[in-house]
Write a structure and sequence with these properties.
By secondary structure, this protein is α+β, with helices and mostly antiparallel strands. Helix 1 packs antiparallel against helix 2 and helix 3 packs across helix 4. The protein contains 5 helices and 11 strands, in the order E-E-E-H-H-E-H-E-E-H-E-E-H-E-E-E. It has a 6-stranded mixed β-sheet, with helices on one face. It has 3 domains: about 35 residues, no CATH class; about 60 residues, Orthogonal Bundle (Helix Hairpins), CATH 1.10.287; about 170 residues, Histidine kinase-like ATPase, C-terminal domain (Heat Shock Protein 90, 2-Layer Sandwich). It is elongated and about 100 Å long.
Length: about 300
């Protein structure tokens, strides 16, 4: 049995049983000698239950994390499967090449998601931040999500400040936007108006994703960024989308806030520092203003 100062508790194992013990001084009466008191408490069942709970928590966390990784990988995986099926029946070689490039992009995004969850930092030069067309990544994210769905009752309204550039990793910025858009489309059940807009404010670009869904109950607003918190049904989401998105926006020097009123939809407002350096692109130059404001009913 180990030693401890008066009033201190220690554990002791006696055979199969486990005990907490505590000893203390007792002053002697009528100038008699001091005495020592010792209290034992059998904690075998309590300790066994605690060990079981710790193990269950570890197993549960692993299961939840695994479900979260699956949740984040589903979108690019479905994109790869869809593009692969399209390639099988596509006679146009140019379109096949285009599909192949998209598959590579989806694959890179999946690799980035895995790195993000496992905490492995890649050291390749290509992983350095670079100037990124924000509106282009937002457009690519919504295109990926809506290409395989019935869009007959979905209207996407865009109002962009221009071809804005931010310092980020393209696949991770697109992943963050994809997480927000996935939540918006799920809340709307694929029907209604989805607004995408960007605006400039001093040295920042503000991106707003507004859906016409049912909104978020007030009591849930303070928890929406908590890991694994979700209001979706079982199997419909792990509650990691907003957590990952927020971490990525903060990584790039920005932030996100949610505005929602039950019954009146939800707006995700992302702020990122804008940069003046323009990345090269074959599609459009950042120096050319592409400001536009137009409703875009999506064809079925």
């Amino acid at each position: 049995m180990g030693t401890a100062g008066p009033g201190h508790r220690q554990d002791i194992q006696i055979g199969p049983r486990r005990y907490h013990y505590q000893w203390f001084h007792m002053a002697g009466r009528n100038q008699g000698e001091d005495r020592i008191g010792l209290v034992f408490r059998d904690t075998t069942d309590e300790s066994r239950l605690q060990d079981q709970l710790i193990q269950a928590e570890k197993s549960g966390s692993l299961g939840t994390l695994t479900a979260g990784i699956g949740h984040e990988l589903n979108n690019p995986l479905f994109g790869i499967l869809g593009l692969g099926e399209a390639i099988e029946e596509e006679p146009n070689l140019d379109r096949v090449r285009s599909y192949a490039r998209d598959i590579v992009q989806h694959g890179r995004r999946m690799a980035s998601i895995i790195r993000d969850f496992t905490g492995v930092t890649a050291r390749e030069t290509s992983d350095q931040r670079q100037p990124v067309h924000l509106e282009q990544e937002l457009d690519r994210a919504i295109t990926t999500l809506t290409d395989g769905m019935d869009r007959s009752e979905l209207v996407i309204q865009k109002s962009y400040a221009g071809d804005t550039c931010v310092s980020a990793l393209p696949d991770q910025l697109r992943q963050a936007f994809t997480n927000l858009l996935t939540n918006a489309l799920h809340a709307m059940k694929g029907r209604g108006v989805l607004g995408l807009s960007t605006s400039l404010a001093d040295t920042s670009v503000i991106t707003t994703i507004a859906d016409s869904g049912p909104g978020i109950p007030q009591q849930h607003l303070s928890k929406i960024f908590d890991p694994f918190f979700t209001t979706k049904g079982q199997g419909e989401g792990s509650g990691l989308g907003l957590t990952v998105a927020r971490r990525l926006f903060k990584k790039f020097g920005g932030d996100i806030r949610i505005e929602s009123q039950e019954g009146n939809g939800t707006s995700c407002i992302v702020t990122l520092p804008v940069i003046s350096h323009r990345p090269p692109t074959q599609e459009a130059s950042c120096t050319e203003s592409t400001s536009r404001s137009s409703p875009q009913p999506s064809p079925s």
